[in-house]
């Protein structure tokens, strides 16, 4: 594709934009970019294959709802959770599903929330608290009483730490019948080795994880910030606060309903403890993009060529 440069000389945009040897010279920055793209490709392939595995489970669940519980896709959207539990219990009484004993609502929820209950217990017992001298963002301060005095620890649960606990503990502690394996309890050395190996891997991949999380957060919230700029300064529940707020045996959709109901009262409680510095910074962050966009709009109306680029050969 050729365009005319300065009115006389043709300019091939394809040759200007596309590089025949993009990896030359192979610098440290290029190596980091190639490594990140390779890791991202592996992660994308893993997610692609996992999609089909989850699709099979989803289709099996739909088949169970439609043929066994006689619940259609339209009915499940408005049917209460208690009604679904009653239908499963009635089905168990008429024909044995996979258990020989009578099934109750407590048994169903216990089976669904077994892994989550362990994580809720770990958080509530303060097992993830560390003796950090200064607080870090998202950490909760707790006080531990000891014979020689009180100790101030900080409870931390980042998303990567939650992934680590899920991989090393929750995914390997149960057998096929959802019972805690004896080897898992009697051999803590294996768990220590797994946590150590995953910790080293997280340390080596920390740079890529930071980039991945930043891109993920940007893509997740860019549409919301574009349509509702005021939400850029609004606060949300942190990962730690969500697990502290979750009750035992509370399924996900009920928890979301309860936490969404708190959105109206939470700002009122939060306003009782104002932080002037954070408020000023938040207003500044929300003001700058809007002001920059306004300047670009004015320039586009007055002098549009200022926003146009011009490709020329060196």
TrEMBL record:
Pfam families: ATG9 (PF04109). It is a multi-pass membrane protein. InterPro entries: Autophagy-rel_prot_9. GO terms for biological process: autophagy of mitochondrion; lipid transport; piecemeal microautophagy of the nucleus; protein localization to phagophore assembly site; reticulophagy. GO terms for cellular component: autophagosome; phagophore assembly site membrane. Its main location: membrane. It is found in: Preautophagosomal structure membrane. Keywords: Autophagy, Lipid transport, Membrane, Transmembrane, Transmembrane helix, Transport. The chain crosses the membrane at residues 31-53, 195-219, 277-302. Belongs to the ATG9 family. Phospholipid scramblase involved in autophagy. Cycles between the preautophagosomal structure/phagophore assembly site (PAS) and the cytoplasmic vesicle pool and supplies membrane for the growing autophagosome. Lipid scramblase activity plays a key role in preautophagosomal structure/phagophore assembly by distributing the phospholipids that arrive through ATG2 from the cytoplasmic to the luminal leaflet of the bilayer, thereby driving autophagosomal membrane expansion. This is Autophagy-related protein 9. It comes from Brassica cretica. The lineage of its organism: Eukaryota, Viridiplantae, Streptophyta, Embryophyta, Tracheophyta.
């Amino acid at each position: 594709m050729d365009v005319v440069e300065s009115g006389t000389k043709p300019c091939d945009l394809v040759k200007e934009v596309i590089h025949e040897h993009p990896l030359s010279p192979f610098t440290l920055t290029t190596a980091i970019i190639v490594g990140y793209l390779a890791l991202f490709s592996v992660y994308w392939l893993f997610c692609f294959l996992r999609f089909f595995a989850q699709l099979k489970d989803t289709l099996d669940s739909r088949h169970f709802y439609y043929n066994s519980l006689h619940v259609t896709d339209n009915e499940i959207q408005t049917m209460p959770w208690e009604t679904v539990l009653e239908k499963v219990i009635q089905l168990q009484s008429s024909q044995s599903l996979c258990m020989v004993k009578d099934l109750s609502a407590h048994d169903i929820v216990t089976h669904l929330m077994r892994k989550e209950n362990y994580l809720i217990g770990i958080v509530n017992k303060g097992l993830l608290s560390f003796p950090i001298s200064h607080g870090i963002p998202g950490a909760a301060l707790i006080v531990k009483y000891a014979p020689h005095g009180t100790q101030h620890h900080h409870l931390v649960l980042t998303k990567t730490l939650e992934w680590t606990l899920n991989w090393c503990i929750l995914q390997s502690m149960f057998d096929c019948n959802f019972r805690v394996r004896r080897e898992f309890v009697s051999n803590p050395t294996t768990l220590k080795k797994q946590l150590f190996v995953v910790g080293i891997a997280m340390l080596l991949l920390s740079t890529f994880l930071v980039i991945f999380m930043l891109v993920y957060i940007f893509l997740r919230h860019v549409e919301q910030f574009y349509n509702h700029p005021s939400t850029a300064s609004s606060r949300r529940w942190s990962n730690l606060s969500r697990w502290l707020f979750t009750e035992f045996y509370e399924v996900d959709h009920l928890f979301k309903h309860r936490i969404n109901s708190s959105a109206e009262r939470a700002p009122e409680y939060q306003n009782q403890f104002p932080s002037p510095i954070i408020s000023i910074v938040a207003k500044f962050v929300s003001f700058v993009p809007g002001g920059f966009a306004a300047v670009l709009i004015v320039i586009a109306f007055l002098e549009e060529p200022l926003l146009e680029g011009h490709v020329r050969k060196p």
